[in-house]
Predict the 3D structure of the following.
Amino acid sequence: MYTIENNIKYELIIKNSKFITILYKINDNNIDDILFNIKNEYPDATHYCYAYIINDIKKSSDDGEPNGTAGIPILKVLENNYLTNILCIVIRYFGGIRLGANGLVRAYTKSCANAIKEANLKELVDGINITVTFPYTRLKEIDYLLKDLKINAKSFDNLITYNLNIEKDFLNIIINNNLDYQIIKYLKIEK
C-alpha cells in the first residue's frame, strides 16, 4: 500500500468546466472538517465530489452529480493505485456544457489520476509501536542501535524511555536472530 507524502492540488479544464482536485494525506476520520473548509474556500463551486480510503474504510460521494459518475470513479483510481490514508476531493465549476454520464466519469477519473501523477508516493510498511526503557549506562549503545530510526518521544527520569515505530520485519529479525539483545531486554511492544 502507498500514501502521498504531501497534499497535492491539480487543476483541469474540460469543455469549460473547471475541475480542481486536492489530495489529502489523512490518518483519521476528519473528512467532515476538511470538506467544510473546502466549501468555505471554494464557495461558488457546483460540486464537491470525493472519495477516501483509511485502512479498510472506503467511502465516496457524487455530491449531486448523476449517480456513480464522480465518487466511485475517484475511489477506483485510488484503489487502482493501491493508496490508503488518502482523501481526494474534486471541486467542479460547471462551465455551461453538459458532459454526459460517460464524460463525467472520464473527467473525474482523469482529474484524480493526473493529481496522483503529480504526487510523491510513499510505500507503507507494516510496523509496530515499541517502547524501550533502559538505564543511563546503556544510552550510547541504544542510541547507536536506533540511529536510523525516528524516535517519537523521549523521557529522562530514573530510566530513559524512548517510544518509536519500527518495521515488523526489522523487529522480527532482532528478536529471531537474538541480535541487539540489549534492545530485547528493555523492549515493550504496544498493542
User: Anything to note?
Assistant: The first strand starts at residue 2 and ends at 4. The chain has a mean pLDDT of 89.
